[in-house]
């Protein structure tokens, strides 16, 4: 005879089971995304394949399931992906969220192939937006126009003369203004270039292009965007990132007003993408974070992690600070924004309050300067600091091994190499190319290599970056065999730099970057298996769905 | 024979009961604060007495229980107050949270009775804080020193000459600086008083006192406080407010850095008191809120509600803007900070985005100016706007009825009347006292009257304010019968102005301000029944415990 449980005993057992079910990590009432061709890296960076992803109700990974693993019967919900490919969401380690958004609500010249086309685009935009008092935009690159010089205010005046027009260079390191804008900003032949900046001149007169710190001379005259425009720009940017499978991004140089925008979005429940914010300069960073980085806010959607400092300008505008003069501009060595003392003091000021430090360094002189500063500061600020060098673009080969010390993170952008290689050859000459975009050497030297796009300078497309990383070729397949092919990295190493190591670089490896127990369920569904295809197919991979924290936040329609 | 329930039926019933228990509004597993002498106003402003308060687990009032009402058997927790008096938490409708905190970590001169005592206090503070490069503080009032004039830099130099010293007047409308501070700020005999401000002079030289807009000339030289000092100041202020039974406060003129401090506190889980923030000026308000007020943040602890504008200065420093000259300063009519056009444009700019408007108006000229602006703007911005006039201190009797239109809120401070009455008599002469601190007339005219302390100008003690409101007498019982006693308000009307109407004035009447179903359980335990005692006993009431959202956040030790 079977001994029957008494009602009170059953009740007690039920209460106990329910109490367990109510704890967040419970296996009861989980959700299952099933029937996937699942690929991820594990915490050692090894590829793991799976067919089902079990999640908690609040969007964390419980476990990866293989084809033979039994599926739980009790589930909150279940999604059948019909065999499609699931990957962890990408981490873009270097982008500018608000600039990406404004690029989309302002005039975008990124695809223009000539100065005339740019002028026509500007004139058409003004005709279509007669109410705008200032015409703003960006994306131009005189290199793509085969112009052989910077554009001028006189060029732009022939398109629009009756109101100020200001267009940012694709790399964000120069502005092109018309005469009305220069007049509004009070620029005359007597205006002096500020330290770290350069007013381009033609015949002793300001030509209309303002490089690096000189940009501020024009920017101070531009009216601040309205809050509604900031909100709209954010939503555009977020949608763009999600559509490319980016589920987390570093925001490099967040201003106070940008931070306020993110908070408004979080307060209103509109933050989807995870933002690791690096405040623009020490002052704004401290105004935001106070005595240190913020906690993760809005259910792990936003955190002020550290500070972004600018060590120099960009190569295209000859603002990158070089040890030896530019090959194509004798005597010019670019713009070092800070003295050795200033950069150390700023880094020290931020490190003191445990902000992570990320320094923009393009030229070999600046890279050496930042490495020197880290050498010195690492003596004082011990422990797990993850000093970041952003771009690490042109490095003296003698300095490359130094990236392997002090746990330095080299935060690099594969597509910059393929976009810039011809310009870089012109700027540097052949002798200095060995330490240019030296991804593989960074890995060999033991640096943590992480990848991003520097959007909106480039499109925020990780597949374009991944393809560039494993080929050193542009979308046109050029050059054959790859440019400086010794710096090609392996497919899995590149993937890791666009995912889990990007999370690590922002102190977020316990939260996201791969699919594994306890990680946030941030994943994407794509139209092909990126580990199985040739580079041009990899480049053409399309994201079909983007999920963050177990919720679908974007879908291709 | 009793029919026995089957195990499975019991299990189902248990599951159902538990499912109900998990919904937030469930009556199951509530909490009870019992055995209280409970007093509150109901939504019509009538006194309600109760002996128990039933709360939800998340800290809302379920219902008030009378002595005969049955208590639920199943409770999350139960507190026995042993018959002590429970009141709803107070709402201070006009205060300055961060200034209250800094007053406590900087030098406080509020209790000084003479210039010599103030000088001794400053010298002692410098000796005790040798590492401080700038000596900051406030709370002085030359009226309390019987000095018959403003103090001077020369006075202060005899106490401290080797480093800058800047002391704010008790009303926050003037600074007293020593020569080192004036030198650091670059003040000379040639420095011109800015619009809306006045550099006091002696023999043609700056004397050391800077009134209203002239304060900025000194302030710009003072180093910004460190984030850790801001955090510490906030926690001091919060503790002070809670110790006086203030569970919600309007913060009048929140700067961007103050807002960032509140956010850091909220992010770290350190916000206890509820803050209705009015941003300092339109620019900072819009930088914070963007296209409109924020939602309530941090579980109803912080909200940007609107904007604070300053229409004039204060009476003590003769900055209040009067229709006729000061009785004790022939020819001077004070400082109107804004032209009629500017004030309307600013109010309109903020009202357009649905920010609530609160305008500081002390003098009769400014009160008329703001009333004119509201008359005009109410045509455009219809609906429930709750235009606030802060202080409404000296009003032309002809203008008093105008407070009854457009739903105007008169936000007044009872203790100002008792502190200021002798000074006000000197400044105004007898003829203009009829419309001074005219609380009862405001009520009779149909304005919404709300009370606050203007801390740190006065102590944030609602019982002092309540006693002043019902007596028009100071702590010394002077003057006999009360000053301008026709403006005394009733005990319950004053209570209402310090509680539920204060919530209404910040659009928070659905959240707090009284104890009733659905309201947040914000209450205090005090040592006597304020409805049963004489005014001097009322003034001496001590808060024993302060609870916010059903949690004890402060207790007297």
TrEMBL record, chains A, B:
UniProt superkingdom: Bacteria
Pfam families listed in its UniProt record: Amidohydro_3
Signal peptide annotation: 1-29
Gene3D superfamilies to which the protein is assigned, alphabetical: 3.10.310.70, Metal-dependent hydrolases, Urease, subunit C, domain 1
Transmembrane feature ranges: none
One Gene Ontology molecular-function label: hydrolase activity, acting on carbon-nitrogen (but not peptide) bonds
Alphabetical UniProt keywords: Signal
Domain Amidohydrolase residue range list: 80-553
Name this polypeptide is given: Amidohydrolase family protein
């Amino acid at each position: 005879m079977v001994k029957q449980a008494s009602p009170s005993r059953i009740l007690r057992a039920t209460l106990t089971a329910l109490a367990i079910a109510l704890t967040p990590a419970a296996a009861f009432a989980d959700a299952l995304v099933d029937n996937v061709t699942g690929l991820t890296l594990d915490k050692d960076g090894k590829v793991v394949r799976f067919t089902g992803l079990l999640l908690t109700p609040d969007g964390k990974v419980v476990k990866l399931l293989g084809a033979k693993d039994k599926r739980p019967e009790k589930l909150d919900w279940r999604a059948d992906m019909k065999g499609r490919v699931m990957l962890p969401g990408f981490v873009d380690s270097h982008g500018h969220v608000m600039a990406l958004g404004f690029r989309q609500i302002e005039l975008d010249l990124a695809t223009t192939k000539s100065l005339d086309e740019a002028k026509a685009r500007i004139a058409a935009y003004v005709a279509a937006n007669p109410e705008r008092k200032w015409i703003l935009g960006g994306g131009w690159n005189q290199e793509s126009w085969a112009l052989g010089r910077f554009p001028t205010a006189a060029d732009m005046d022939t398109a629009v003369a009756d109101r100020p027009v200001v267009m940012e260079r694709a790399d964000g390191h120069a502005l092109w203004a018309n005469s009305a804008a220069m007049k509004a900003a009070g620029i005359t032949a007597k205006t002096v270039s500020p330290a770290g900046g350069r007013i381009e001149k033609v015949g002793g007169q300001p030509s209309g292009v303002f490089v690096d710190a000189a940009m501020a001379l024009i920017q101070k005259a531009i009216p601040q965007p309205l809050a509604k425009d900031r909100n709209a720009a954010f939503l555009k940017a977020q949608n763009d990132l999600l559509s490319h499978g980016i589920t987390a991004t570093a925001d490099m140089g967040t201003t106070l007003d940008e931070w306020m925008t993110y908070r408004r979005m979080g307060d209103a429940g509109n933050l989807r993408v995870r933002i690791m914010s690096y405040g623009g300069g020490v002052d704004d960073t401290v105004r935001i974070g106070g005595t240190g980085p913020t906690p993760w806010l809005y259910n792990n959607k936003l955190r002020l992690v550290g500070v972004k400092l600018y060590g120099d300008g960009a190569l295209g505008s000859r603002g990158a600070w070089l040890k030896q003069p530019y090959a194509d501009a004798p005597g010019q060595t670019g713009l070092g924004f800070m003295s050795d003392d200033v950069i150390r003091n700023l880094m020290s000021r931020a490190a003191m309050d445990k902000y992570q430090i990320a320094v923009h360094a393009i030229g070999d002189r600046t890279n050496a300067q930042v490495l020197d500063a880290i050498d010195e500061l690492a003596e004082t600020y011990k422990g797990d600091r993850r000093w970041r060098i952003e771009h690490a673009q042109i490095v003296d080969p003698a300095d490359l091994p130094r990236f392997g010390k002090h746990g330095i993170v080299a935060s690099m952008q594969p597509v910059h190499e393929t976009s810039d290689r011809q310009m870089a050859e012109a700027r540097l000459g052949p002798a200095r190319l060995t330490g240019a975009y030296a991804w593989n050497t960074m890995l060999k030297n033991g640096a943590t290599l992480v990848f991003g796009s520097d959007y909106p300078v480039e499109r925020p497309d990780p597949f374009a970056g991944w393809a560039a990383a494993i080929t050193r070729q542009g979308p046109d397949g050029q050059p054959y065999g790859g440019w400086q092919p010794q710096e090609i990295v392996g497919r899995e190493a590149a993937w890791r730099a666009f995912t889990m190591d990007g999370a690590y670089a922002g102190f977020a490896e316990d939260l996201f970057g791969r699919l594994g127990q306890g990680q946030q369920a941030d994943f994407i569904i794509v139209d092909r298996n990126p580990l199985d295809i040739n580079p041009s197919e990899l480049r053409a991979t399309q994201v079909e769905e983007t999920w963050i924290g177990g919720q679908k936040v974007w879908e291709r329609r």
